[in-house]
Hints:
single chain; mainly alpha; 3 helices
Amino acid sequence: MIEIPTHLEESFLHVAEIEHKPVNKLIETALTEFLEDYHDARIAEAAIERIRRGESELVSLEDAERMLNEMDD
């Protein structure tokens, strides 16, 4: 079991009451979202580093849309 500080527990209890959801589900959702955001940030940082090293380049939204449309034709 994970121990959380009292102030966080109280906040989760308050939100659980308002949302009519179990605290453990709220904590699971919060942790899942945190981990997804963490992984997304690492992927973005790696992409930025590839751009800085010249291994990748940026494509404008307009060019990306044009390329996607060409793929559909």
